[in-house]
Design goal:
Blueprint lengths: L1 H29 L3 H27 L2 H31 L20
Helix pairs in contact: 1-2, 2-3
Length: 113
């Protein structure tokens, strides 16, 4: 009985994670600005991967697999924000941002308006 409930929960988490990852991929392709694409590439994709990993962990349940899954999740959480920061920084430095959509710019060196 417990195995059946865990398997159903794993299936739900796998589908939810796949849908979030799909939404992230569509967002990267469809969003107009670098900042919007950066958001789509990090936020829903990270949650989608974590949901997928949780679903896989519920399905596999062996200690060695759970340790590896935990490491993958930890590395995902550690690298996605850094990647987003570097993408945003590169876009800012190469002036590929739509300045009309930026509400405040703390990097321009001028006093606030």
């Amino acid at each position: 009985m417990v195995g059946t409930v865990a398997d159903w929960l794993a299936a739900v988490l796998l589908v939810a994670g796949a849908l979030l990852s799909l939404a992230a991929g569509i967002g990267v392709l469809r969003f107009p600005d670098v900042l919007d694409r950066m958001h789509a590439a990090t936020k829903p994709q990270t949650l989608g991967v974590l949901l997928l990993l949780t679903g896989v962990a519920l399905r596999l349940r062996s200690p060695s697999d759970l340790g590896m899954i935990a490491l993958v999740g930890l590395f995902q959480l550690a690298t996605a924000p850094v990647a987003a920061q570097m993408i945003g920084r590169a876009a800012y430095r190469t002036r590929r941002l739509d300045r009309g959509r930026v509400e405040s710019d703390d990097q321009d060196g001028r006093a606030p308006h």
